[in-house]
Amino acid sequence: MIEKMSKVRILALQKDKEKLLDSIFISGLFELKESREFDSLSRTQIDTLKEEEIIDSRKRFLSAIEFIENIKNTKTPKEEIFLTRNDVTLVDIKRQEKELEEVECIIDALREIDEQKGILARKREKFVPFVILPLRLSGFKGTKTTDIFLGKIKDEKALDLIKEDLKEFKYVSCEVLGEVIQIFAHKSESQKVKNLLENFNFELLSELPDKTASEVVQKLDKEIAKLDDKKSKYIESASAFLGLVKSFKIIYDYLGFLLAKLKANEKFMASKYTFFVEGYLRQKDENKAKEFLEKLGVIVSYEFLKIDKTDDAPTALSNNLVVRPFEFITNTYSVPSPKALDPNLFIAIFFSIFFGFVMADIGYGLLFIIFCLPMYFVARGSTKSLMGILSICGVTTIIFGVLFGSFFGLTHQTLALIPEALIKDPTENVYLMLAICLGAGIVQIAVSFVLKGVLFIKRKEYGESIFSGFIWVLFFIGVIIFALSFVAGDSFRNIGLILGCISLISIVVGQFFINKGINRLTKPFSSLYSIINILSDTLSYARLYGLMLSGAIISSIVNDLASPFFSNGLTFTLGIIILLIGHGFNLFMGALSAYIHVSRLQYIEFFSRFYEGEGRLFTPFASKFSYINLIEEKNRR
């Protein structure tokens, strides 16, 4: 559900600003907003140099985290495999700064070694083609009357052209050894030769030491080996600091805390001796915030106000453990407006049912639970939500798997342990399965109209709630009764027709009375026209059967491909491999397709009638930390 929010205003002395801000951020109760009150106060200016310094430090520490966690031949401690938030005080952070500086020194040294290795490696690459020359390279420096051009070129066509063009010179000779070209030219023609070579991207070896190329390469190899040995020692010493990765993460978050606190100054209004700040908090946390502010030990004045129309209030969602993961699906589309309805309970119900219907296999459902549920308890952020969604959908997948009697595509007829299907062979019962899908669509669309009616009631637009919302439910009931009459008997058919006609007439007449002006003429007709949209939207739910059918057929094909290999002990392993690859592919593609298409049904067919997004999530400062929970020293256990 969407929680009610309040606005808070705080006025305090400038000398207490740091203490007050630290406590506000640590409390996790407030989201600060830009203050626009009190024209007599001026806006606090941010220290841009300090901001740049903090941003640069954060980048360095983030690089340090990534470096330490990716050191070769080292193992990350078990507790660091997944991000965990640690309770930390500001005192703890200051104690660890020295150790972090030591690790940063190692990182700087390694970076310098890599730069030196890069220089040597590039230098070595230049000399490698010339190892075929037995002479010292200093012998190619030329004489008083002759210039020597020693270099290489990889393009054979260009090489042929160079050799052809050099024939036009009178005092020039050329010798080619592999990629290496030696050109001897008289001083009078050397400039022309140089210009010619430049046109063909000739790579001239400008450095000519008093050694052979082979000796130069060997020397460079030794220098690189020394650097590698030096780097290994540094890496070994850095591995000893692996247990301090948590310290890096703490400092990274702490710098984020300083940065946010610095940027928060832009939202303040201040005088010479006081400053004023505004923010939002959950209405239910007002007493907690009041107690918190009164125990700070500083002079502070505050007040709680109701949210008005001019406020850009955030949306605070509060749902139970089952519904909470599905907030990810809703927020991917758009965060609900704080004045709208929270659809997440209904998303949890419909999404999990539709997903389970599409996958509909006991084995696949068990895999979802086995792999995703443990991940849910250790992962964070969107990954945690996704794992929670798949875990819950794993349960519905098992339920539908039992209904259809499917275990990795096997049935009761092939394996007696599998429960007998309550709905026989969904691949052949086309009409029944389509009826189930379309019926589910009608139910969800009907719920969307109920929610639309509730939204209008919330706004005290009672006429709209009846004739644009609830009356449509009566129409759907009539449609369902009419459809069931073909199974239950003709006696119900007239009841369905009467309900449908009454609802449609009520919709048209109601729209005429609740609207004004030109809308009195257009709205009744547009309401009738919406029946076409409803029919189109309902047919969209047929895709659920198509997705389920494709998954069931692929499972059957995989089993048929693998079964012949189980008759022979020599090919048994190959059969297992076929099953693993085939069902793995089907599971992945089926889950991906189910997630995308079921989400589409929620976004287009369900949300289009009542949902109001364009909100933004309530993000108190404490929620912005990646690795730590910042607490007060007195709260440490």
Main attributes?
about 625 residues; six-stranded antiparallel β-sheet; 12 strands
Describe the structure.
The protein is α+β, with helices and mostly antiparallel strands. The protein has helices spanning 17-27, 48-69, 90-95, 97-127, 156-166, 187-199, 213-239, 245-264, 286-294, 327-333, 344-359, 362-378, 381-404, 430-458, 462-488, 493-514, 519-540, 543-562, 572-606; strands spanning 5-13, 31-33, 42-43, 86-88, 146-152, 172-177, 180-186, 203-204, 269-270, 274-282, 300-306, 628-630. The strands form 3 sheets. Strands 1, 2, 3, 9, 10 and 11 form a 6-stranded antiparallel beta sheet that branches. Strands 6-7-5-8 form a 4-stranded antiparallel beta sheet, covered by helices on one side. Helix 11 (344-359) runs parallel beside helix 18. The protein is extended, with a radius of gyration of 37 Å.
Layout of strands and helices, then pairs:
Layout (H helix, E strand, L loop, with lengths): L4 E9 L3 H11 L3 E3 L8 E2 L4 H22 L16 E3 L1 H6 L1 H31 L18 E7 L3 H11 L5 E6 L2 E7 H13 L3 E2 L8 H27 L5 H20 L4 E2 L3 E9 L3 H9 L5 E7 L20 H7 L10 H16 L2 H17 L2 H24 L25 H29 L3 H27 L4 H22 L4 H22 L2 H20 L9 H35 L21 E3 L7
Parallel strand pairs: 4-12
Antiparallel strand pairs: 1-10, 1-11, 2-10, 3-9, 5-7, 5-8, 6-7, 9-10
Provide a compact summary of the structure.
With 637 residues, the protein is α+β, with helices and mostly antiparallel strands. Helices cover 58% and strands 9% of the residues. A hairpin with a 2-residue loop joins β6 (172-177) and β7.
Number of strands: 12
Q: What is the count of DSSP helices, taking H or I runs of 4+ residues?
A: 19
- State Rg: 37 Å
Specify the overall morphology: extended
Structural class: alpha+beta
As a percent range, the share of strand residues is: 5-15%
Largest sheet: 6 strands, antiparallel
- pLDDT average, as an integer? 82
Q: What is the helical fraction, as a range of percent?
A: 55-70%
First-last Cα distance: 33 Å
Q: Which spans have pLDDT < 50 for at least 5 consecutive residues?
A: 72-84
